[in-house]
Amino acid sequence: MSEPASISSGIASRYATAVFELAKQEKKLKQLEKDVDELDDALNKSLDLRSLVTSPLYTRGEVGQAIEAVARSMKLQPTMVNTLALMAKKRRLFVMPNLLVALRTRIAKEKGQVTAEVISAKELSKAQAASLAKTLKAQMSMDVELKATVDESLIGGLVVKVGSKMIDTSIRAKLNALQNKMKEVG
Questions:
Q1: Could you give the angle at the alpha carbon of 72 between the alpha carbons of 70 and 73, nearest 5°?
Q2: β-strand 143-150 against 113-120: which pairing, if any?
Q3: pLDDT in tens, the chain (186 residues)
């Protein structure tokens, strides 16, 4: 992992631990999960929000007021509103995507679930997704939630990531491996 990514993950992990533990104590994990989903959706859909979170052009005060207003308008729980305001004050909002990932991981673990990122060459049918989830559940001994995306450059097959494990059965990977073997021979 690169150093800046490692630093971002470390910062995000500390905030995530604090927010998660507070939500757990207050028995508001369902609300926290809803907040995470809404924030993730807002970050993905709003260029203005992404700019606010990452741009160094805004003052701490401007960012703090803006993120607090956004969080309150989204009706996020007070713990999340306060955390985002604190992150803005300390110029740490740039780790928000990592924070959301860390919170999702903690929530899933608490629920006895694991999220598997599945990348396929074409969209999986419901039957294929159910079969894959069942197979992964048997392997992991946990409920598995699939987060499926499509990447046509795979040509065929799947790339499955569960935690730190990755299984790449894509045709692209097989062609790359074959190409590397051919380079070794000649």
A1: 65
A2: parallel
A3: 455 667 788 899 999 999 999 999 999 999 999 999 999 999 999 999 999 998 888 899 999 999 999 999 999 999 999 999 999 999 999 999 999 999 998 998 898 888 889 999 999 999 999 999 999 999 888 888 898 999 999 999 999 998 778 999 999 988 998 999 888 886
* Intra-chain end-to-end CA distance of the chain, in Å: 33
Read off the pTM: 0.70
Domain boundary pick from 82, 109, 136: 109
H/E segment holding residue 26: none
Neighbours of 66 (CB within 10 A): 17
Q: Which of 85, 109, 133 is the last residue of a domain?
A: 109
Cβ distance 154 to 171 under 8 Å?
yes
Task: Please indicate, yes or no, whether residues 100 and 13 belong to a single structural domain of this protein.
Answer: yes
Instruction: Supply the angle between the helices 47-54 and 29-45 in degrees, to the nearest 10.
Output: 100
The answer on 101 and 129 residing in a single domain is: no
**Burial readout 157-183 (b: 16 or more C-beta within 10 A, e: otherwise):** bbbbebeeeeebebebeeeeeeeeeee
Residue 62 belongs to domain spanning: 3-109
Same domain, 9 and 97: yes
The DSSP-derived string for 40-51 is HHHHHH-HHHHH
